Amino acid sequence: MKLYNSLTRRKDEFQTHTPGHVEMYTCGPTVYHFAHIGNLRSYIMEDVLEKFLRYAGYDVNRVMNITDVGHLASDADTGEDKMLKGAKREHKSVMEIAQFYTDAFFSDCEKLNIKRPDVVQPATGCIDEYIKIVSSLLEKGYAYLAGGNVYFDTSKLERYYVFNDHDEEDLAVGVRDSVEEDQNKRNKADFVLWFTKSKFEDQALKWDSPWGVGYPGWHIECSGISMKYNGEYLDLHCGGIDNAFPHHTNEIAQSEAYLGHPWCPQWFHVHHLNTNSGKMSKSKGEFLTVSLLEEKGYDPLVYRLFCLQSHYRKGLVFSWENLDNAKTTYEKLLKRIAALKPEDGPVDQAVVAEYRQKFLDQVGNDLNTSMGITALYDALKAKTNDATRLAILADFDQVLSLDLLSKAEQLRQQAANQAKTESAGGYTITGEGDPEIDALVLRRAEAKKAKNWAEADAIRDQLKAMGIELTDVPGGAMWKRV
Ligand SMILES: [Zn+2]
User: In which residues does the motif 'KMSKS' region occur (predicted)?
Assistant: First the structure.
């Protein structure tokens, strides 16, 4: 597989420290609010990446943190504490907020067919790990104490701005743009490893440490959690592109200073979801959630398809019109799959293997998911029987996770339930074959024939009250439950 690597800024051949095994880490959500669909775009693409690696034969250990402490409004350690902000907004404790939004996040993931990582670790559960790393960084001279807090000294590194395609001055401006400057820092880019003094005297979560009672900075949690569950050599680190700097830059700085060797050679970043008015973000107040999509009648998997149709390294523009297009595509695709006959077999394994190889080559070119969608249409047109076509589609759906076969089967069942009842007079009723409803529909037809409009209308109203939608068609009527 070839994958774009943000560190080398080119497509590299994917490699792992141990052949056939991938240690993968994903920055998880800060659980102070619902995830918006822009955040979820990253998790969808990371899910496809993990599933593709498994499909390609790798065994994967995927780890994700849940940020429930230490993440301030600005990623450069200034501004309000996000968890505290959530707790105040909802008059709940920080722990209650964390539990509620962690559950909400995984419920959204389930609806989007995002697999739960092998390890999910809340940041508050690994305090000893952070203390161990921070102590060692102080010993080695990579960190210093100032104003009660422990800071990482970025000037001690030969190379700090690893994701920087700007020059240092640009980045310094980026840091300066943050809400306020911390006078304790020796260098502008230095960051907090451990807080004991902060303006949040009412910070609910605090732990004892060699530097006093306090709490960890945001960046240290990912290094600590990854080293605990992935080991010293990480193969692949994932996150949204806005995590590249300063968060991932800081993760690399502290991890390599601590380990004394390179930490993670491959970095995968998913780009933003934009609306016509710019990047989708929570700070702007209104944002789109999976629940909102459902309320508006969209299957969450329509959003998954919408994301898969474009490349993860391109900004994606969300609009209702674009989502409607994805919905139409999804429905048409399912209809075509439902029209295939599973009993038209046997499965030709050689053809399945040939399509599988093509899929590996195409999607394996920097996770080209839109080619993966195109491959579904190729499978539908394959010169083979329907059972083989279905086997190919099922194979691809291990990666795409669009529930193609189960949803198509539902459509098939619905069509099979459309029984026809024919009356003696040649009047055909098409519905589910429910005798009670069919009898009412027939009585209405007879009332109409006898020009007894009042009775005909009364029966129609009665059916409506039963949740039945009735349509007159030539030679009969059709009904369905609504
Ligand atoms: Zn992280």
Answer: 279-283
